[in-house]
Amino acid sequence: MPTCERNGLNVNAPLDDLPVTLSEIESAAELLTGVIERTPVAHSRALSLKLGSEVFFKCENLQRSGSFKARGAYVRMAKLSEAEKAHGVVAASAGNHAQGVAMAAAKLGIKARIYMPLGAALPKITATRDHGAEVELHGTTVDEALSEAKRYAEATGAVFVHPFDNEDIIAGQGTIGLEILEQVPDVDTIIVGVGGGGLLAGLSTAVRAKEAQLGKKIRIIGVQAEHAAAYPLSLAADALVPLKKVSTIADGIAVGRPGQLPFSIIKELVDDVATVSEDDIARALIFLMERNKLVVEPAGSVPVAALMNGKLKEEYGELGTVVCVLSGGNIDPMLMLKVIQRGLSAAGRYMTIKMMLSDRPGELATISRIISENDANVTGVDHTRVGGSLSMGDVSITIDMETNGTEHCNRVISALEEEGFRPIIVY
Known about the structure:
Layout: E1 3-6, E2 9-12, H1 22-32, E3 41-43, H2 45-51, E4 55-59, H3 69-78, H4 82-87, E5 89-92, H5 96-108, E6 112-116, H6 122-130, E7 134-137, H7 142-156, E8 159-160, H8 167-183, E9 189-193, H9 198-214, E10 219-225, H10 230-237, H11 260-269, E11 272-276, H12 278-292, H13 298-308, H14 311-316, E12 322-326, H15 333-346, E13 350-358, H16 363-373, E14 377-384, E15 394-402, H17 406-418, E16 424-425
Parallel strand pairs: 4-12, 5-6, 5-8, 6-7, 9-10, 9-12, 10-11
Antiparallel strand pairs: 1-2, 3-4, 13-15, 13-16, 14-15
Domain ACT: 352-427
Protein name: L-threonine dehydratase catabolic TdcB
Pathway: Amino-acid degradation; L-threonine degradation via propanoate pathway; propanoate from L-threonine: step 1/4
């Protein structure tokens, strides 16, 4: 009987008792043949050197519709009866699930209505409509859109397509696990971002079922944003623990309550669920863009964030050959601008400082000289004489500058302090 280690404990995991089986995942793979992309696996030389292990990326950011969500959505909808298809489908999402359902509906000739919150990114709304789905904006959160989608389903008979809490959805997402084992047969560790848990549940089911055939134990680790981390709490309590508040730039995994079905699988089959900070996520996104030429959304970059912050290596030692699932690439360009700035700041390559000065000639010239002598490049200056917090004769100055790392930032700050200034780092 297969077993898995989680948090140092040996947990019996009878696969036949779980809600999704290997045969269902293999059937899902057949259904998806010719429908979705068999996404490539890319080797990361830069991260391999940094980690001391071979690191590969499973590039679901290059999937049709821009994320893995198309897999589960198509499998769920392809198995509907003709009567169900005639009633159409309805879903709620801020982006990736919406596009996956819309794409699947277009291929299957099914009418689709998607409820999206008012704050959903315009590119995601446009992409969903471009697939032919009817988009309705409702509420300010995904939960509000979800409630409206369920109401519509009850009123019209349309089939509600849940983003993660469904056997067919989980089986469809599990096909990624089968592909990873074929593409990187010597994999030792697989790292996956987690929101509701459908992807991690499906992938872990496929991988655990194949371990006996492979003759090895594969470590499977989920990753959540630390301010949207319902799984660690739920696993510790052995029950679903909803979060009171969710706040993260990784909107694709901003889920406040695990799915019941995914949770029942993950608690048995997954080794651990780690968390990463917002700065970790931003740093990873920049790394993927600069060093690997990959555009990945924040939710898709969390496995890389978990590797880069070093905590996994501290916890487990050698990770062996690693595969990180880059789950999606649907990033709003406006969010990308903010994340890039945050990522550069977290890496010490961009710094904004604020100072109070005496309003007299030569102060700004002195500051400029100090910054120049320490090889930083000023990109913006905001000089304010009037404001509620300013005294007569004071000036508030904010300076944006390009820097070359944390040590360089510290050197610039020290040089300013030596001249009597009191800079405060804004970010």
